[in-house]
Specification:
This protein has helices at 40-53, 93-106, 122-135, 173-197, 205-218, 230-235, 239-245, 287-290, 298-313, 358-370, 385-391, 402-415, 448-457, 494-506; strands spanning 3-7, 18-26, 29-32, 62-66, 75-83, 112-116, 162-166, 224-228, 253-259, 267-278, 318-328, 340-342, 348-350, 376-381, 395-400, 418-421, 439-440, 465-470, 476-477, 488-489. By secondary structure, the chain is an alpha/beta fold. It folds into 2 domains: 3-171, 3-Layer(aba) Sandwich (Leucine Aminopeptidase, subunit E, domain 1), CATH 3.40.220.10; 187-506, Zn peptidases (Aminopeptidase), CATH 3.40.630. The strands form 4 sheets. Strands 8-9-11-10-14-18-15-16 form an 8-stranded mixed beta sheet, sandwiched between helices. Strands 1, 2, 3, 4, 5, 6 and 7 form a 7-stranded mixed beta sheet that branches. A 3-stranded mixed beta sheet has the order 12-13-17. The radius of gyration is 24 Å and the shape is elongated. The two termini are 34 Å apart.
Length: 507
C-alpha cells in the first residue's frame, strides 16, 4: 500500500530507489529547479545530462538518470516544471501536482521514492504530496483466478511505493498535517477511481453498497452506513429511483453514509448519482455511447470517498452522503417515455427520455437529504453531455445559489480541479412545463446542462443552500495517463468536496 511521509533531511543522502527533482527552462536551456539539495558534483553531472538529452523541462517531461555522483539514491528522476528561473521557489500548485505525478508514474514499481520539488509553504508541500500519491495509481484488470484462490483481491490496486516528501518548508505541525491530509484524500480518491473502473457486472447497486460497508468498517473513522433496498424505496415513495431501476435484474439502492462528530460547526449533505451502468433504457444509447457507461456512477463514488476522507481527517462538520444507486436497463419492466412517476416529496414527473435518468435518482436523493434540514446540499453527477459540449473534458460546471456555487468553485480551485460557475436563468424553467404532471424531467437540447440543474432545484428543501456539480467530462478519460490524471476513472470531485468541507470547518 502506498504511504506518504515528510522529511527535512538532505535529499542527496536519502537511501531510496529513486529521487525526484524538478527542472525548469530558462534562457540557457533546461536546468535544475531550486530545492533539490544536491551537491555541486551532482548538479554538474545532471546539467550535462540535461544538455545531452536536449531536455526542455516542459511540464510532464520526465527523464531518469542512474548513478549520479554524490547522490545515495539509485536513480534521479528529472521532472519538468516549465519556464522559470533556477532560483524560483514558488510554483503554481497545479504545476507541482502534475510534475510529481508524472515522475511517480515512471517509478511506481519502486519500493521507495523521495520527492524534492520546490515547496515554499505547507500548501505547496501538500500539492507535491497529493500529486505524488496520484501518480502511482493503477487499476489492475480482472483476470482469471489462479488455482487455490477464491477470486479477486478486495483491493485491486497493486502495492505502491513508500513516498517521502522532502520539505523545504520545515517539518512543523502544519507541514506534517498537510502531508497526512494528502494521503487521506489520495486514498479516498483511489477508492473512487477503483469504483468507477470496476466492470458493471461486478459493480451493481448491491455490490456497490457492500463495498461501502466494507470500507467504512475497515476505516478507523466513525462512519455509519444504512441501505434502503427496493422494497423500502417503493414503500418510501422514491418513485424516481424506483422507476429508473425497474428494468434491471439488479434493483436500486440508496446508501446513506453518516459522519456526525460532536460539536459539529455545520451540517452538509452530499448527494451522488450512482448509475452503475447506463444503457439509456428504452431510449437506448448507440453502441459507441455505452462503452464508458460503467462510469456513470462517478458522482456517488466521489461522495463515498469524500465522506470517508472527512471522517478520517476528523473535520468538525456533520456530513451525510447519499449514494443513489441504480442500473438503467431496457428490460421488460423498464420505464417508458410518457410514464408519470411520483417523487419522494410528492412531486409528479413526466418522463420524456429514459436516458435522462440521473436527475430522477438525484431528485429523490435531494428530497431525502432535505428532510434533515442540512445547512448545505451539494449534488454531484455525470449528468449531461451538454456539460462536455460547453466546458470540455477537464472542467466541471457548477450551478446553484450564489453562495454555494462560489464556495464549490473556490474549493475546486484550491485543489486544482477545474470548475466553472454557470447560471440558472429563470426563463428556462418553462421548458420543463408538462400538461400531464407537475413537471417534465427534461427540456429541449438548448441549455441542457442548465435545465437539468433547474429540475434538481425543484427538490431542494426551502431555505437550504444548494449547489449542483456536473462532472460528465472530467470524471473519466479514455486518453492515456497524463500528469495526475490516470486513464479511466479520475476520482474527480473527491478533493473538491473535502476542500469544501474543510472550508465549512474553518468558518
Amino acid at each position: 500500500m502506498t504511504s506518504l511521509t515528510v522529511t527535512t533531511k538532505t535529499a542527496a543522502d536519502l537511501p531510496v530507489d529513486a529521487l525526484v527533482v524538478g527542472t525548469v527552462s530558462g534562457e540557457d536551456g533546461a536546468g535544475l529547479a531550486a530545492g533539490h539539495g544536491l551537491p555541486r558534483k551532482a548538479v554538474t553531472h545532471l546539467q550535462a545530462v540535461l544538455a545531452d538529452l536536449e531536455a526542455t523541462a516542459k511540464p510532464r517531461e520526465v527523464h531518469r538518470v542512474v548513478a549520479v555522483p554524490g547522490v545515495t539514491a539509485t536513480s534521479v528522476i528529472l521532472t519538468g516544471l516549465g519556464p522559470a528561473s533556477t532560483r524560483t521557489t514558488s510554483f503554481d500548485h497545479v504545476v507541482l501536482r502534475d510534475a510529481a505525478a508524472a515522475a511517480l508514474r515512471s517509478v511506481r514499481a519502486k519500493r521507495t521514492v523521495a520527492v524534492a520539488l520546490p515547496g515554499a509553504d505547507a500548501d505547496a508541500v501538500r500539492a507535491v504530496a497529493d500529486g505524488a500519491w496520484s501518480g502511482v495509481y493503477r487499476y489492475e484488470p480482472v483476470t482469471g483466478a489462479p488455482a487455490g484462490r477464491k477470486g479477486r483481491d478486495t483491493d485491486p490496486r497493486v502495492e505502491g511505493p513508500k513516498i517521502t516528501v522532502v520539505s523545504a518548508a520545515g517539518g512543523g505541525r502544519s507541514v506534517r498535517e498537510a502531508v497526512r491530509r494528502a494521503a487521506t484524500v489520495g486514498a479516498a480518491r483511489d477508492w473512487a477511481r477503483d469504483l468507477v473502473n470496476t466492470p458493471p457486472n461486478i459493480l451493481f447497486p448491491q455490490s456497490f453498497a457492500d463495498d461501502v460497508k466494507q470500507h467504512a468498517s475497515a476505516s478507523s473513522a466513525k462512519v455509519s452506513v444504512s441501505v434502503l433496498d427496493e422494497k423500502a424505496l417503493a414503500k418510501g415513495g422514491f418513485g424516481g429511483i424506483v422507476g429508473v431501476g425497474q428494468g434491471s435484474v439488479h434493483p436500486p439502492r440508496i446508501v446513506t453514509m453518516t459522519y456526525a462528530p460532536s460539536g459539529a460547526k455545520a451540517s452538509v449533505a452530499l448527494v451522488g448519482k450512482g448509475i452503475t451502468f447506463d444503457s439509456g433504457g428504452i431510449n437506448l444509447k448507440p453502441s459507441a455511447g455505452m462503452v464508458t457507461m460503467k462510469s456513470d456512477m462517478a458522482g456517488a463514488a466521489a461522495v463515498a470517498g469524500a465522506v470517508l476522507a472527512a471522517a478520517e481527517i476528523g473535520l468538525p462538520v456533520a456530513v451525510t452522503g447519499y449514494l443513489c444507486l441504480a442500473e438503467n436497463m431496457p428490460g421488460g419492466a423498464a420505464q417508458r417515455p410518457s410514464d408519470v412517476v411520483v417523487m419522494r416529496d410528492g412531486t409528479s414527473v413526466e418522463i420524456l427520455d429514459t436516458d435522462a435518468e440521473g436527475r430522477m435518482v438525484l431528485g429523490d436523493g435531494i428530497c431525502l437529504a432535505s428532510e434533515k434540514s442540512p445547512d448545505l446540499v451539494v449534488d454531484i453527477a455525470t449528468l449531461t453531455g451538454a456539460q462536455v459540449v460547453a466546458l470540455g473534458p477537464d472542467v466541471c460546471g457548477v450551478m446553484g445559489d450564489e453562495d454555494a456555487r462560489s464556495a464549490v468553485v473556490a474549493a475546486a480551485d484550491s485543489v486544482g480541479e477545474g470548475a466553472w460557475p454557470m447560471p440558472l436563468p429563470q426563463a428556462l424553467r418553462a421548458k420543463l412545463d408538462s400538461p400531464n404532471a407537475d413537471i417534465a424531467h427534461k427540456g429541449d437540447r438548448d441549455g441542457g446542462m442548465l435545465t437539468a440543474a433547474i429540475f434538481l432545484r425543484e427538490f431542494v428543501g426551502e431555505g437550504i443552500s444548494w449547489a449542483h456539480v456536473d462532472i460528465a467530462g472530467p470524471s473519466f478519460t479514455t486518453k492515456e495517463a497524463a500528469g495526475r490524471t490516470p486513464k479511466g476513472g479520475t476520482g474527480f470531485g473527491v478533493a473538491t468536496l473535502v476542500a469544501l468541507l474543510e472550508d465549512r470547518a474553518a468558518r
